[in-house]
């Protein structure tokens, strides 16, 4: 009897250790993102760059992640989840070390690409390992456990990033990943399950190349509008070839047997609307984590520490709304919630354009708190409506497509914000306080772009059945 108990306990213990390992990866990613946003203005000063032109640091990571997500499932099946997850952590740590050692912006952007390669594989492969280890009735509990570190990271990230920049140096926002990553790497090789062999399907290499080239070309073209050294002719050429590559992928997918994303997937109305809505809504909300620290530190002259503490209001608003998001959608329906919330999100983004040095601190905190709430509601409802009608063989593919669109939209949103900041700065460069004016105008413009999502969500069926949200995270 004792022998039977020990045999049963060992697999259970390994399963719990797997959850902790995946949670470590989730924590590193969420912490890295929120620490970085607060530190960007100080990093710009240390590297001799304009604080309004640091968007490439964020774009490089998000774009690399978006580009690699479609291949992560195949890579995990081909080489095994244990090996790929360990490699992902190792690359993330290596990228963090290179970021900390960066002597200039170009080196830092290249290091963020290395970090992005690791980040692209870490969470999807970790989720896949959990999916294959836990039965369906335990999977929701397992994923809820993994999501906790993803909420802790944003909670402590802004203040920790501000503290490190103010009392140590910006390099420590990357050095902090090293000990956590090394512990995760050691634990992965020791406890991560090897998993059963999986039949590897043929990978759509040609389709992947077209899709990746299209995403990279368009994002670099948008980033080039902010003056990263690309001439206008090259920006136009990149944009044209990027669009042509995406169009070629679609025609390619219609004629091959096993494309990356089957065209039949887009016959699901809620998926089509959800993906497009995610894209347009995140042009504004995805740029906010980049723009708000600039407003606080460059516009209002706050210290990094104080700016980080102010950002906690956004996190608190987000976490409180998460508790009522599902009930709200169940009561009013996806279409009404997303249309109204898109308008409110746009209004809150636009309200930051009215902030000045004379704005009371309590009012600014209230703005950040309310914005965090509407932003959380938007992400939860968008993610849920996109995936709620995807079933069977399309479930994994639809989830990967949503993750790719989310990261691509964030990349494009930050790139557009950088381009707008550059354009407004050049327009008002001769005026006093031109940086604050450029930041205000950029907030107003991204608010208008966010309103486009309202038009997209109007295409949802009003009487669509509302089901419980599968995982309405703010990914």
From TrEMBL:
<feature type="transmembrane region" description="Helical">
    <location>
        <begin position="172"/>
        <end position="193"/>
    </location>
</feature>
<keyword id="KW-0812">Transmembrane</keyword>
<feature type="transmembrane region" description="Helical">
    <location>
        <begin position="18"/>
        <end position="36"/>
    </location>
</feature>
<protein>
    <submittedName>
        <fullName>Multidrug transporter subunit MdtD</fullName>
    </submittedName>
</protein>
<feature type="transmembrane region" description="Helical">
    <location>
        <begin position="109"/>
        <end position="130"/>
    </location>
</feature>
<dbReference type="InterPro" id="IPR036259">
    <property type="entry name" value="MFS_trans_sf"/>
</dbReference>
<dbReference type="Pfam" id="PF07690">
    <property type="entry name" value="MFS_1"/>
</dbReference>
<feature type="transmembrane region" description="Helical">
    <location>
        <begin position="271"/>
        <end position="292"/>
    </location>
</feature>
<feature type="domain" description="Major facilitator superfamily (MFS) profile">
    <location>
        <begin position="18"/>
        <end position="462"/>
    </location>
</feature>
<dbReference type="InterPro" id="IPR011701">
    <property type="entry name" value="MFS"/>
</dbReference>
<dbReference type="InterPro" id="IPR004638">
    <property type="entry name" value="EmrB-like"/>
</dbReference>
<keyword id="KW-0472">Membrane</keyword>
<feature type="transmembrane region" description="Helical">
    <location>
        <begin position="401"/>
        <end position="425"/>
    </location>
</feature>
<keyword id="KW-1133">Transmembrane helix</keyword>
<feature type="transmembrane region" description="Helical">
    <location>
        <begin position="142"/>
        <end position="160"/>
    </location>
</feature>
<dbReference type="InterPro" id="IPR020846">
    <property type="entry name" value="MFS_dom"/>
</dbReference>
<feature type="transmembrane region" description="Helical">
    <location>
        <begin position="304"/>
        <end position="325"/>
    </location>
</feature>
<keyword id="KW-1003">Cell membrane</keyword>
<feature type="transmembrane region" description="Helical">
    <location>
        <begin position="205"/>
        <end position="222"/>
    </location>
</feature>
<feature type="transmembrane region" description="Helical">
    <location>
        <begin position="228"/>
        <end position="250"/>
    </location>
</feature>
<feature type="transmembrane region" description="Helical">
    <location>
        <begin position="437"/>
        <end position="457"/>
    </location>
</feature>
<feature type="transmembrane region" description="Helical">
    <location>
        <begin position="56"/>
        <end position="76"/>
    </location>
</feature>
<keyword id="KW-0813">Transport</keyword>
<feature type="transmembrane region" description="Helical">
    <location>
        <begin position="83"/>
        <end position="103"/>
    </location>
</feature>
